[in-house]
Amino acid sequence: MSDRRPLSFLRQAGTALCLYAATAACAAGDVDALLRKADSYRLPAASAQVETRVEQYRRGELDKERDYTVYIKPGRRSLILMKTAAELGQKVLMLGDNFWLFVPDSQRPLRITANQKLLGEASTGDIAEMSWHEDYDGSVSEETDCPKPPEIAGIPGRVAAGSCLRLQLQALRSGVTYAKIELFLEKNSKFPVKADLIMGSGKKAKEAWYFEQAVQGRRQVGAMLLFDHIQTTRHTVVHYRKLAAREAPDELFNPAALVRNSLAEW
Amino acid sequence: MVTKLLPLLAVLALGSTPALADEFNATLRITPEYHEADRGSPYFAAGRPEMPGGWNSNQEIALRYRGHGFSGDATLRWETRQGEADRLRADLNQFYFDSALGDGLAWTIGKKVLTWGIGFAFRPLDVVQRENRRSVTDPMLVGIPLLAIEKFTADQAWTAVWAQPGQGGDKRDRDDEALAFRWYKVADKDDLHAVARFSRTRKFEAGFGANRVIGDEWSIYGATLYSHRYLNTINTLGETGGIFALTSPLAHQSGEHANKSLIGAQWTGDSGWSALLELFHDGEAYRKADWRRLDALVARQHLNAALAPATLFNANLAWSANAYTQVNVHRDNALFRVAYDNGDGFKPYLELLNTPADGGLVTTLGGSYEGNRFKISGGVRHLGGASDSVYARAPERYMAWVQLSCPIW
What ipTM describes this predicted complex? Predict the structure, then answer.
């Protein structure tokens, strides 16, 4: 009996190791499916209208709030219409890795670089890029306990808990806002829990936490909490106030069309 | 007449549109500015209203409406000028109707701001609006009466514009009746632009431009425009060898075969710093010889100041100083701009405009901060450079400004 124990322990350990390796390998091969499932909690359809409110807090106090209407289409196409009085009429168009900014004072769409879109209070990518499976690839590095979010009052919904899959993701193209993401998905549902958002320089830019809400019996990301690792005194809450399937016409995604009034009705 | 009717026709179109969401807002803008005159400048004319000097301030409410296919922008402005009576004025900046005709086809009628082209300090392809890009405190842009048809596909756009219909020719630029066309194409990392314009005054203009984005940080761009004919304003006393005129000696002079060109590069780092360099040529601006002729006239006027009443002397200096109202005082210019964005609404910048022909330098140090409900911007602009340069001899030494804007509703 006593001489079989070490062998039994080794066999059990070996079995567990093999199972873990197989699980990890299987998951790595199916990262696209994991990301698609996680994306489904962020976007209800490939073409969608997202009404977003961004609240920026400085030292815990509300500093700025901005409203955006975002139209998203497959193929990394997003159109952001700024709806707050202070920036009313401004638009940002994203076509693949290309970006244009329209400011009403100049009445002219302006081609901007990926870094230019990063600047300003709310990163365009945080609002417009809602499809991980189109932008990232990578592997599952481990199964672990889900990380616990910091306590921030006033955010509706809760962050998923329990067991999580930890994914290491790399951007598939240079125009994506964050070059790498370390993403935690709740193991069973694949609901996003937390993402560490890393710049091309390797610097961790932000930490995102995803709060779930039930909308018409369906689980979805209702809010995203962002901790800025560059501006450490502030945090941002992105509220997804309305997520609906809606097909905006293709011609609205032409930079030259940004000057048209017809967008006001969208 | 037709021009004046266009906004009315736009109103009539109201009845034919379905009820859609309306958007109405108003913004208060207060812009005090201070101009320091250079009384030692040969172009300084004492007691003339055209001369810079002292405080002035614009208080305006900008009203904006979008809905039912309509766009309207109007400005109510109260202008205060040191030493002058206050003025109230109302401008209809834009009022137009635009609508889709289906299959990517759309049309616009009314008064609209229509800015085309590429460039930060100068836009050669801006053949309809002809915006002054060097001004820092100008009021909102005022549109042009027009009728336009546009065709959009996923990656191209064609625009045909009938600007200032019924105005006729022989007028300056934005008041000149014209037919203008634009083609625009997105080709992955490139934006391609081409324009053409026909009018009685300028006859034919055509140009093209491109903008390429390289990686996450760089963009390079360029544009060039050919004009068959152009008009600029000269002081005829400079040509005739005269000294003083009793009435304005300013007149339009036409030139032929002008070119406007621009090349530029912009870098934006992920730290928030950015830099921009533009070299541009404005073939309609004064040559060095034009300035020499004008300088010689001003020298004659000073030499003979004792022969004329002071009011006539100063009026003539003011007419000569009109040359400084050109957007570009020299044909060749270089602009360097470095800016920072802290990601939290604070954006300072430094801008240097150099005229290589004479070593002139315009330095602008400015910045803006955008809060939750307001935006404040301001800066200082200094005109100088080599002592015999056009900018160093300008009747203005520097200006400083602040602009506060906040939405009212």
Answer: 0.80
